[in-house]
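Protocol step 4 of 5: obtain the predicted structure for the target chain.
Materials: sequence only (see below). No template structures provided, no constraints applied. The aim of this step is simply to have a reference model before the mutagenesis design in step 5. Sequence pasted as it appears in the construct record:
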Amino acid sequence: MTHDEPTEGAVAAAKAVLPGLLRRFDRDPDESRRRIRQLLERDVEAFYRAAIESLGAADGSAGERYLVSTLLRHDLLLRALCEPTLSAPQAHAVIRMAAEVNPGSSCLLARGLSDEKLAENFGPQALFRMIDLLSSACGTERILPFLRLLVRHPDPHVRSKAVLLVGPYEGPGWLQARLSEPDARVRASATEALGALRGPAVEALLLAAAGDDNNRVAATALVELYRHGYADSAEALVRMANHASPRFQASAAWAMGMTGDPEFVPTLAHMLANAEPSVRKPAFAALKRIRSSPPTANPQRLRLSDHAERRKALAAELPDWQRMLLQSRR
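Step 4 output (structure tokens):
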């Protein structure tokens, strides 16, 4: 995704002309269209720079709608939506206008998500914002085929985001393969995606993930086990808070906050007073989260400490490939 750098004069000229053409669009649409096309043909990059500033207005006028459709037709809209100068509300407004002028715009934009240069030029966060925008606009199911392509993206941050979104639709068998990936971010996302599912296979995989040697994966698994009703997950989180590694302590604090359970307040208060700075920050955030949200209900009372017995019971309900997983993670 390389672009010829326009001259300052060309950019300034385009910025001076384009806003007036958009304002006059209602009065003389034919002439406005002709001159907007001329601007684009004269210097695509200068036109693009001017268009970015005009998109910030997001007023829904006929001129702005034509500008959005022009950017979409020339494969410039996805890039524009990744620009940090465009706020999230402005980007949402542009997405809505694109859907009005072209109902298939979401799919057209989603096709560009797998372009490796997009994350390279704008950073993974810009790509994540685009995924969130498109998911909000048309639903994750509509862009699922394009999200699946991101599972093989070279950037591990992008892969982990894709696994998190795609995983609940693919099921436990697909997520089990992601739990074997070397990148801990991908394994943590697969673990979080498992939390949206239910059944013996899911419980088995979460129990296995709780034994992961990465702090983020293990803490995520304990959060999801807590939400599945495993009473001893709380005890396991307290033990993690006393781990020798500050990384595990910080992850334990984060996980306690995610449960919203006041049971963890004494442990977090102790961490806040005694832990090192890298742990105190997540401990403070967890306390704030717990005090501002109700605790998660846990109607079941399953014992995490009875791993062997629980896994044996689960194994009787599992197919061979999942039973092998339990046997390999005792």
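Step 4 remarks: The two ends are 48 Å apart (CA to CA). The first helix runs from residue 8 to 23.
Proceed to step 5.
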